[in-house]
What does this fold into?
Amino acid sequence: MLIDEAVIDGVLGAALRSGGDFAEVFAEDRRATGARLDDGRVEDLASGRERGAGIRVVFGDTTGFAHTSDLSEAGLRAAAEAAAAAARGGGGGVKRAELRRVDAAAPTAVAVFPETVAKATKVELLRRADEAARRAGGSIRQVSVVYGDSRRRILVANSEGVLAGDDQVKTRFAVSAVASGDTGLQTGRESVGATLGFELFDRVDVEDLAAAASLRAITKLNARPAPSGRVPVVIKQGSGGVLFHEACGHGLEADLVAKDSSVFAGKVGELVASPLVTLVDDGTMGPEWGAIAIDDEGHPAQRNVLIQDGVLTDYMWDWLRARQKGRVGSGNGRRESYQHLPMVRMTNTYVLAGEEDPEEIIRQTPYGVYVAQLGGGQVNTASGDFVFGMTEAYLIEDGRITEPLRDANLIGNGPEVLRNIDVVGHDFAMGSPGTCGKDGQGVPVGDGQPTLRVTGLTVGGTAR
Amino acid sequence: MTVTEDRSGPGRSGGATPESLLDLARQVAGWARDGEQVEAYVARGRDTEIRVFEGEVESLSSAESAGIGIRVVAGSRQGFAYAGSLDADVVAETLADARDNAGFASEDPYLGLAVPDGVAAVSLDLWRDDLATYPTQRKIEQAIALEHAVRAGDRRIRQLRASEWGDASVESAVVTSTGIEASSRRTACYLSAEAIAGGGDDTQTGSGYSVGRGPADLDLERAASDAVLRATRLLGAVKPRSGRLTAVLEPRITAALLSILAGTLDGESVLKGRSLFAERVGEAVAAPQITLVDDPTDAEAYSAATHDAEGLATRRNVLIDGGVLRMFLYNTYAARRAGTVSTGSAVRAGYRGAPGTGARALTLVPGSLRPEQIYAQVGEGLLVQSVSGLHSGVNPVSGDFSVGAEGVLISGGELAGPVREITIASTIQRMLSGVVAVGDDLERLPSSASGLTLAISDISMSGQ
It folds into this structure.
């Protein structure tokens, strides 16, 4: 335990002394290691530690929040008083429930905790990846490799009696290569991340990952500018979950819905996507990057079906928004660290497999763009317009994948794109680990999808 | 929007003065052993964030935080460690971690901490005492007044996603065993609003903000009218046909472009073969109207600073002069490796990272045309009001540039109909050469770059 139960009890009492409807203590101890190899040298091995608690007091519709790195009873009480002052509680009877521990299954059983692995072993992975990336081709000019692990222990307790904890171990690895040719420089990147310890590398061969990154850069040396305009787009399995994350994921977050900032507000029960689309957000999905046992409000992670056969079934919820609607949460209250307030966030978001043969989807596309890797994206939830970048893509001509294309963004409107998905493959894969940013807070998320086709998306290239 | 303040992290250490930060940094640097160099960067911040919604405080967060980052160079190897606390035992453990980490890095003869270079730091007044005493109640009133002003600004404003007050004060010190000693402090505050206009399929958003070092600098009316104008002038926006045209970038967009450009002009990228401008010093890389300066000594620049992240005095660096590339930016390491001297351009992301290289206060030297004169000169084109996907569709290594955009068409030399769900694309190289007009409207923005209106020819706009 990061804090004694008796201390928690006293701090919750202090937070509510002058009134308030709800008080919460969120404590966190995070340790992280990062190592970076660049230009053939292990440049930096960095390790860090952050430890502290955030205290929230809610009075009516106002939330007061303060945080401290001092986990002593005095430090916590001072933060509790600051949070209470911020919420401007008005006195009155406050009900507090006795603390009871929340049971939540861990999404994965971590086999090898990062702190038990020698630094030299971690560094050795970097060197192996660097060599493999450079072996992949003579045009490779530069390689950078990043290793990162983190162990985040959290404790959440609130005045409703919730007492919960989680021990979140995550490990990631990424390789970026630069190739040089007559057309200038090109880049290729591959990354992997999981809610696992060092055993991640029993599942993933870093040399294969490195070779794939290099191959991507080399392939793009021959790439032509992407088309400019609206074309059919086929998205390879596991490469385009970010499309759903942006096209509708954010718009299904209850805080944005409540503020009338989502195109999906008021549409539960309506057909909002092609009937081929079933969209799920699943925090229990170990060992994916967005997996958690509990969310950062002590609510156990859940598998939530958001869109079933094209019909909007539910939004995602945190404590605050669920309370306002008089319903239960959905395990989506997350925060970057103890220095941040929780809000509604995705975990692992994915579209279920359909029935079509993925090869057949390409064959049935006379002209279009085939996207094999997407980068990040961004959405305006109020208008529904969203972009996402393609970092490996090809032209489809006469039902065949032909030439590679240079990087570009694609733009679409969420509700329109969801309706325009006309075929979904029977394959499925989760994509690369992502960090989702919202209101300045980043949290780890996963996404995935089968191969599928959108009848029209605007590709932001320069080819006439 | 986000204010890019060099925020320090967690920790609580009430009542310390800048001198005490300097003392702590001195103490840690003094622990260097024979044959070892030690750098201590210590930072402490205090910040407040207030969000209001429908006339009520939605959340009020207030906290103090502090942390330390320690770099050790020993035997031509470097190690780094950080902690979100200034407690004596944590600081000692952090130094031990940094030492240990150094043992696993590669040897590099160019590694080493900065040494005093005789350049005197300018004197800048970046601190406003009245921010610390500005009452919370006044901050709340300002955020509520901003919300009212936006709602009252136009009957088509349907909602605000957010109306916010934020402020931060940061003090930091860096001391090395090689004779560097520097400390600084700064304050910042902002008001920001994001307005939602229209309804149904025609919903548009626009943001407005005002930033300054103290409350007296803030212009609430300007923040409100910007948000209103930007949201309402996009109502009725259509998706235009694809084509090539001249794009006129609003100051905010120009600043974003400059920030990307900075990454290609950083000496470390050049050394590592990641810059498209490598080997081009002395050549024309941009239109003759382009003079690009990084000048952190300019007190008017939002991100002005007396010292860089390694404690060397900042200086005015002219990167591109009349279209000709003159120099790259260097920190101590990159300069040694390139056989030159530091340009005072070390930057760091708070105490959690070792110093890299980067621009701090970029600006184009303003031209002589007002924005309206530029529209008239352009005749037919696109005024770009916002862009999205800068992280996903711009590849600073290859130079490919493709972003989502919204704006207003320019027809007959005047602003005409609004457009949305488009992309604009080119390459960084072509955009620099294609500049046809530089505005006189220099705007200081909460970023490492200032903006002004900039017209660029031959941009691909993708729409229908």
Notes: The two ends of chain B are 29 Å apart (CA to CA). The first strand of chain B starts at residue 36 and ends at 53. Chain B touches chain A through 82 residues (CB under 8 Å).
